[in-house]
Design a protein that fits this description.
The protein has helices spanning about 5-10, 30-45, 60-70, 80-95, 130-140, 150-165, and strands at about 50-55, 75-80, 100, 110-115, 140-150, 165-180, 190-200. With about 200 residues, it is an alpha/beta fold. The chain has one domain (about 30-200): Vaccinia Virus protein VP39 (Rossmann fold). The longest helix is centred in the first third of the chain and has 14 residues, at about 30-45.
Length: about 200
């Protein structure tokens, strides 16, 4: 499947109806989700036939993208029950079989080949991003994770990721678009510079 085809399919997905600011609930736009998934699939061969987990899956865009690109098994987990319900409806609409679970990321057990996630940036709850990274590295061999695209964050993660058992393999600059989500948002769309990290589990 070409990236453009994937974008078109992902653009049909419904977002979470009531995202929660305390969990930094923002929908990942279809173009960015397709770019992230295609990087994992076609640059590094990390999707096809693999077991994939999406931590903080929201309404399922990355989990569904992984399934469309040939993942063997996809699990998504999110603490927002309403988002998970929408994600299940999205998967049914697109015609993919994925397992979406409502719960904290701490409930995830087992072993996966790859974590594909858009975690909280830690803007509203300090350390939330590192908590997601720790969990991802405890259950998977390879982690794809989006983070703020700033030199300060790069320096911080460059120091922190090795401390929690990871090794940064690649950092790709991206720009995501956040739609108007909360009352304090004045514009219809907000472009945000981010970095896509590919992190290898140093323990495996």
């Amino acid at each position: 499947m070409k990236k453009k085809q994937l974008e078109i399919l992902l653009s049909q997905l419904a977002p979470s109806p009531k995202p929660k600011l305390k969990w930094e609930g923002y929908a990942l736009d279809p173009e960015s989700a397709a770019q992230m998934a295609c990087t994992a699939a076609y640059v590094h061969n990390d999707i096809y036939g693999k077991k994939i987990v999406d931590l903080g899956c929201g309404s399922g865009v990355l989990a569904i993208a992984a399934s469309l690109l040939g993942a063997d098994w996809v699990v998504g987990v999110d603490i927002d029950r309403e988002a998970v319900q929408v994600g299940r409806a999205n998967a049914k609409r697109i015609g993919v079989s994925i397992d979406l679970v409502a719960g904290d990321i701490g409930c995830v057990a087992g072993r996966f080949d790859v974590t594909l996630m858009n975690p909280p940036f830690g803007s509203w709850k300090k350390g939330a991003d590192v908590r997601f990274l720790k969990k991802a590295l405890s259950i998977s061999d390879v982690v794809y994770s989006l983070h703020k695209g700033s030199e300060m964050v790069r320096r911080y993660l460059g120091q922190r990721i090795p401390q929690i058992g990871g090794r940064i393999n690649e950092v790709r600059e991206m720009e995501i678009v956040i739609a108007r989500t909360y009352r304090f948002h004045r514009k219809r769309r907000y472009p945000v510079k981010v970095d896509l990290y590919r992190i290898l589990n140093a323990r495996t």
